[in-house]
Structures are given as structure tokens and as C-alpha cells.
User: Fold these one by one.
Assistant:
Number 1:
Amino acid sequence: MEPLEIVSRLKNKFLNEISDVSEFRDQVFVSVNRERISDICRFLHDDPELSMDYLVDVCGVDYPDRKFRYEVVYNLYSIKHKHRIMIKALVPEDNPGIDSVVPIWIGANWHEREACDMYGIVFNGHPDLRRILMPEDWEGYPLRKDYPLKGPETEYKGFEETKDLHTHDDEWTIK
């Protein structure tokens, strides 16, 4: 099935939830209302003619000057039918939350944790939304456009503890 045919099926079921459809380099992007992301993803996954059984990626994007500052982008693929589509959920800055799709694709677990860790987007209903890349006590979200690139020279609070964990690294070197 061609991507625009997938869009047509989505419009038949979720017309009021789709805010934009765009194409770029043979890829189709569908911008949707975040409140219905679980329903939309469940439909794409469960419909036998679509069968989007492989979640390739979930990532966050930051556009500080837009009405909806964040996007959560879902790159979906059907192994059975060999077609793909990109879904973009628009997320506002004042309430950066969206439902988790982990119940649909278990592989979304780490992707959602990364988007939360790097952008501060909260995935409601996620089973374990701890930081995954940054230390638990890290302040801020490094991939936001307003995150400072440089600041006062300070050492990470947990540096000494982390350094102590690696005192025996030499013992594991293969000689």
C-alpha cells in the first residue's frame, strides 16, 4: 500500500484528529492530535491491511517558536506489507505530555525514556519513565534548543562516585 493510501484510511477513521499531511523525499508525514495518539497507533498496528507491526523509532523534536513546541515522531513500518509512514504528534510546551505507546509496541520503552530524558516530554502510562542517558540528578533537558551550550565550569555532582566505580577497570583488560 502506498503511503497516501494509508493516509486515506487514517482520514476515514480519524479525520478530525489529522492536522496536516506532508511529503518529503518519498516519505509521508501525518501530524495528529496528541490526545488520540494511542487510538491512532492501535489502529495502524491492528488493522490487517496496514499491520504496522514494527516501530522503527520514536523521537522528540523541539521547535521553540511554534505554537506546539514539541513533536513526537513515530516511524512505523509493516514487515508483512513493506510499507511505512511517519506520524507526528504535536505537543505544547505548557503541558508536554502524551500517552505512551509501550502497550502497543514494547520497543517504544527506551525510545520514550530517551525523549523524556532529553526533551522533558512526559509519556503518560509509561511503565518505567526513569532517565536513561543522563544521571538521575541531572538538571535540565540537553536537546532542548534553549539548553545552555556553555555555563560556569562545574563538576558533575556524582563524578567522584562514578570515578570510584571504575577503579578496577584495569583488571578486566584482556592482555
Note: The helical segments are 3-14, 37-46, 108-119, 159-165.
Number 2:
Amino acid sequence: MEQRTFDTSVTAFLDTLASGAPTPGGGGAAALSGAMAAALISMVCNLTIGRQRYADAESDMRQVLARAEMLREELQQLAEDDVVAFNRLSAAYKLPRVTESDTAIRRDAIQAALRRATDVPLRTARAAGAVLPLCPAVAERGNQAAVSDVGVAALLAQAAVRSALLNVEINLRTLQDPVYLHQVRAEVERVTSNLDAEAEHIHALVLHRVKGA
């Protein structure tokens, strides 16, 4: 069975990321950052559940934990999907263009591959952004000893969204479907409309508890 790109040690992954190989790249790194954000939220939930001091928060923490784990799984898969999408786009660019028919087939293949290569980071941005709404409850009611990890999760999720959308933008330059372009632009606007304010709010909540105020 072929090894998945991200089923490897951290060192091996970083070595590959730093190499001249085109994949994994920024899209996979963005998805992995989002997955780490979700994992940190899961960690704080797990450090809260079962503790008598936080018994009143246990039901909420279990719900957050279930959602965080769903997002972590999704983002891990998106990291893999990003590699597949890039490889398909690279293969499309290598198609022959000897005849007019070849050129037309190649053009259509590139456009289809570009859409796939845009959809994946857009889904990554959406999933990473979905980690942020999980943070306030955990910052306010989760284990205070681990509240700083909620702040790290929020920063990673925010960065994952922005990073993924850079990969969206670079593909939009050569996409030719105006309807699809409009849909993507609208989705980018939706995903980013409250992103920074949400992250700032979570940061303030975390600092409040870190300082014991």
C-alpha cells in the first residue's frame, strides 16, 4: 500500500517540505495547521472532561470535542487531497499540444484541474475557520492550566484560513469560468468577513484567563 504523504514522522515531513519537491507545499501546510488547531482544542477538552472542578462544563466540552475531532479528520484528509490536486494539475499541464484537438483537450483538462486545485484550499479555509467558533467556550470554561493552548489553536486556525486562501488566489488568475470565479470570490468573502475580529476576541478571552482576571 502506498504511504500517504502525511503518514510519516514530523522530521520526514519537514524534510520533504523543505526539499525541491513541489508537494507537499503551502496548501498541505495550511491544512495541517488547521488540523493542529483542531487537535489543540481536543486536547484542552480532554484535559477538562472528567475533572471535578470542571464538572459543570463537561457536557459542553464533550460536544466541542466531537466537533473538533470531525474537523481534525477533515483537515488531515484535505492535506492529502491538496497533494492529489496539485499532481493532477501538473499532469494536465504536461498533456501534448501538437494538434488543435490536443490543445483543446489540454486546455479543458487544465481548467478542470484548476477547479479541483481551488476547491481543496477553499474547503481547507472553510474547515479551519470552523475551528474558531469552538474556541470561546473552551477558553472560558476549559481547564485553566491549558487555556494558552486555546490561544495557539485560534492563531493556527486564523493562519490556516489565510494561508489556504493564498492557494485559492493563485489559481484564480488562470481560471476562465466567470460563474465559478464569482462563487469562489463570494465564498472567500464569507470565510474572511469576521475572521480577524473572531481571532482577536478569542485572544482577549485567553489573556483574561491566563492573567487570572
Note: The chain is about 75% helix and 0% strand.
